[in-house]
Amino acid sequence: MSVSTPKERHGGTSQPEAGGGTSPEKLLAPVLSAFWDEPESWTLETYRRHEGYEGLRKALAMTPDEVIAYVKDSGLRGRGGAGFPTGMKWQFIPQGDGKPHYLVVNADESEPGTCKDIPLLFANPHSLVEGMIIACYAIRSEHAFIYLRGETVPVLRRLHEAVREAYAAGYLGKDIGGSGRNLDITVHAGAGAYICGEETALLDSLEGRRGQPRLRPPFPAVEGLYACPTVVNNVESIASVPAILNKGKDWFKAMGTEKSPGFTLYSLSGHVAGPGQYEAPLGITLRQLLDMSGGMRPGHRLKFWTPGGSSTPMFTDEHLDVPLDYEGVGAAGSMLGTKALQCFDETTCVVRAVTRWTEFYAHESCGKCTPCREGTYWLVQLLRDIEAGKGVMSDLDKLNDIADNINGKSFCALGDGAASPIFSSLKYFRAEYEQHITGKGCPFDPRKSTLWADTEVNA
Amino acid sequence: MTANPTGQGVSLGMPQLPAPDFPADVRARLEADAAEVIARYPDSRSALLPLLHLTQSEEGHVSRTGIRFCAEVLGLTTAEVTAVATFYTMYRRKPSGDYQVGVCTNTLCAVMGGDAIFDELKQHLGVGNNETTPDGKVTLEHIECNAACDYAPVVMVNWEFFDNQTPESAKALVDDLLAGRPVEPTRGAPLCTYKETARILAGFPDEREGAVAASGGAGPASLIGLRIARGESPHAPVVHPRGEARGETTTEGGE
């Protein structure tokens, strides 16, 4: 494998040198975000100036099976949370079965803390369109869908425009690039439901139904949209494909780690000095990201954070040097998820944070599975009581018990996600829960956590 | 259905009469639009979510008439359409304002100030969650995470982004909406009404000149990593008005 030598170049990502030793330029790797600061970054013209649609040209010179094998060899893993190898998903599509095949892009970005696909699509929608054309060529699909959450109209406008431009330029429609292949892309706006980010609920929703998860098997690769073979991929996964085809799988594998190769978008948010998007090889640490971006807001320290959205068990300042790749985060007891690094400082009440997330899960539970529907309801009741100073000590074990009765006992991962903040916050901050109970109230002042708190003090 | 224990019985009398249809001219116009939407999908039922957005573009909410229309156009029962319409939070079930003001109160935005903004807006407007000002201009609601956490606290108006809000900026925003002054989001196009927004959601591109390009490329937080990677502005003072102590950590600046 040619991975060893070039990897050393990016070796800094896996060496927790307490930050300062490596310059940020070497730790970051803007690929999808490389030209977001161009004045009209979203246009086809800008995209082409940055080697746009070159990956497609190279893909069309290969056979579809070669494209699948190439993406599989690159080691690209799903960027929507689960980290399943993208090329393998494509390979699961049965060929020669006489049924239509579909590609559905999951742009329903709704996991609390997650904010990568929306800015990506706002600034660079053609990377997705090109990736979709390549994916459809590979899996032999003539109709693809972008399921965008409806609450982001500015992104919807740019997707409408990007797809229109792609048709006008002959990348979509009939006989793409003289390949004899046809492809239509439909941009579909959802209507507000977190659960539709779950791939089978998304398919039900795209079929015009309530978004409720399906029992698997059959998996979407066999019976997906309209019971036909379907690939469901996250936006960032598909948008990463053109660069892999264009610059080569070895270039891609030279970044990140052996099992988690490549670049990805990390989204830093919360009480940090520099919230925003950081595109870096997989395996960078939160300490490195904070060091290069100015750390926590002045005068405060990190208390807890999520590695990949609220559904991934929370971490504390003990975990600053955990490599943010699939294996590293997993080994430390959480999941890489969507790489949504929500950072909270010492002014934040953990009970308040977890209560709010739990209210979210209760609101968004689709109601199909009893443990999730009923369990999230009861979790909210207990948490509200504790936060209001009306809890009793036995509530803490009850919280754990209810979370345990949700976790792994529902069709989809929403229930597991609801249990994560409960388990992890009780593990690291049980004393804070007890403080709410013994002190009969919340010891924190929410005003101190706000964006404007410190400016008010100094004013 | 049984009477409830408080004694206020549920009427078991005549079932509700079927919803009235749209006026013929409206119906003809919507049918033409619906045909265009349905043609985008291999199976007509897939058009249901866009068609519900379409009925909102006509009436501002999903009425029984809108449900009947979707059912008839797609060959579904009104029960099937109602089941879907009530599942998704973006479908408004009663007449509401021209401007849907949503304050994110999911954990991160709430902690960063979303709770305070929502409370102040409730007082300022004199309405509660999911209620509309008497002039029919503004409907206030709290919303869940809208994928803009790096711009927290976030307020959405008709699903355009208003980033890094404070109680003061949010009150000024709704005052502008109430006074009919033009309002431009941080990211997105100059505001149109809720009905006009719903038409875009139904899949009809925004035809206004400059709407796609409005507010420019990526927002400042989206660019922070790129700038640092290039050796520009390590702490990106473009992001927040948070930074009097920003100079304290001196990493190598500039080139």
TrEMBL record, chain A:
Belongs to the complex I 51 kDa subunit family. It comes from Streptomyces lavendulae subsp. lavendulae. Coiled coil: none annotated. Its EC number is 7.1.1.-. NDH-1 shuttles electrons from NADH, via FMN and iron-sulfur (Fe-S) centers, to quinones in the respiratory chain. It catalyses: a quinone + NADH + 5 H(+)(in) = a quinol + NAD(+) + 4 H(+)(out). One of its GO terms (biological process) is cellular respiration. It comes from the Bacteria. GO terms for molecular function: 4 iron, 4 sulfur cluster binding; FMN binding; metal ion binding; NAD binding; NADH dehydrogenase (ubiquinone) activity; NADH dehydrogenase activity; quinone binding. Pfam families: Complex1_51K, NADH_4Fe-4S, SLBB. Signal peptide: none annotated. Residues 1-11 have a biased composition (Basic and acidic residues). It is an enzyme of class 7 (translocase). Residues 1-25 are annotated as: Disordered. Its cofactor is FMN; [4Fe-4S] cluster. Keywords: 4Fe-4S, Flavoprotein, FMN, Iron, Iron-sulfur, Metal-binding, NAD, Oxidoreductase, Quinone, Translocase. This is NADH-quinone oxidoreductase subunit F. SMART domains: NADH_4Fe-4S.
From TrEMBL, chain B:
Signal peptide: none annotated. Pfam families: 2Fe-2S_thioredx. Residues 232-255 are annotated as: Disordered. [2Fe-2S] cluster binds at residues 104, 109, 145, 149. Keywords: 2Fe-2S, Iron, Iron-sulfur, Metal-binding, NAD, Oxidoreductase, Translocase. Binds 1 [2Fe-2S] cluster. One of its GO terms (molecular function) is NADH dehydrogenase activity. It catalyses: a quinone + NADH + 5 H(+)(in) = a quinol + NAD(+) + 4 H(+)(out). The keyword Aminoacyl-tRNA synthetase does not apply. Its cofactor is [2Fe-2S] cluster. The keyword Iron applies. NDH-1 shuttles electrons from NADH, via FMN and iron-sulfur (Fe-S) centers, to quinones in the respiratory chain. The immediate electron acceptor for the enzyme in this species is believed to be menaquinone. Couples the redox reaction to proton translocation (for every two electrons transferred, four hydrogen ions are translocated across the cytoplasmic membrane), and thus conserves the redox energy in a proton gradient. Belongs to the complex I 24 kDa subunit family. This is NADH-quinone oxidoreductase subunit E. It comes from Streptomyces lavendulae subsp. lavendulae.
